[in-house]
Amino acid sequence: MYSSQSTTPDNGSMTPTSRAPETEERTRDRVLQAVLKQGPVSAAELGESLGFTPAAVRRHLDTLSKQGLVEVKLVANQAGGAGRPARRYVLSQRGQTKLGNDYLDIATEALTDLAHVAGEDAVRQFAARRFAAMEKKYQPIVDAAGDDVAARADALAGALADDGFVGYTRDIGANLPEALQGIQLCQGHCPIQGLAGEFDAFCDEETKIFARLLGVDVRRLSTLASGGHVCTTHVPVGRHKTPQRAEKRTRIKINKQERPR
Predict the structure, then answer these.
(1) Based on C-alpha coordinates, what's the Rg of the chain?
(2) What are 119-156's pLDDT values in tens digits?
(3) Phi and psi at residue 48, in whole multiples of 5°?
(4) Element (H or E) spanning 196, and its range?
């Protein structure tokens, strides 16, 4: 039996360690960050990735839920939809705000005043300038991926992930005709979520630069600002898919298909 000095009761770790136990608050922040990066995610999946016991994870999730920082999404069983829906955790709007910009309220108030003085078009021009800088930064990264749309989308997702947007892609429509196949470009975090909720121009301008970077018409399916648990942009790839890339993405899809939708 391990002594109390050799275990880490505060974070519910499954293995003994010699380092000092984490504080409850720090451990809870780790769980919150994991939900941000992996959500929608189950308690069991969180425990496995963090090295915590299921009981410890559920205790922290219960606390975060009571604080209004995470919420439960019921996801249909992927095996034909049979059985009870699975419980998956995602960040709530309050949780997104907690991890966002502390100056968001000031920015929202300033843009509201700008709209009153100069009109809504002035806000749109501001948003366009902001995302023009993002486009300029991401253009060489996406171009380095070549002409294949799916490869460019993967590169864009990686750039978004590096900048804290928790970007990733997932294949859809594998059983559909090739012309209808696509991928979803997802963002699990938006540092200006509250701002985008007040001003549609920010989501609109971001969607436009995604289309320009990828070279195809894209469609925004959901946004964090409008209440979704992830920002999702549909990218059509079937008609632009190279044979080599099609084979590679088939292998990737096998690895990603267990990710909750």
Answers:
(1) 21
(2) 888 888 988 998 999 999 999 999 999 999 999 999 99
(3) -65, -40
(4) helix 193-198
**Given this structure, which CATH class describes domain 24-92?**
mainly alpha
Query: If we measure between CA atoms, which residue out of 151, 169, 171 comes closest to residue 213?
Result: 151
Which ranges in the chain are annotated with CATH 1.10.10.10? 24-92
Tell me the C-alpha distance between 108 and 112, whole Å. 6
CA distances from 112 to 81, 102, 193, 227, 238 (A): 45, 17, 15, 21, 42
| CATH 1.10.150 is the classification of domain 104-256 | no
* Contact by Cβ (8 Å): 14, 53: yes
DSSP designation for 23:
P
Range(s) for CATH 3.90.1520 in the chain? 104-256
Is pTM, for the whole model, over 0.85? no
Using CA atoms, how far apart are residues 19 and 245, in angstroms rounded to an integer?
46
Nearest to 154 by CA among 168, 143, 175, 165: 168
Quick check: 233 and 210 in contact, CB under 8 A? yes
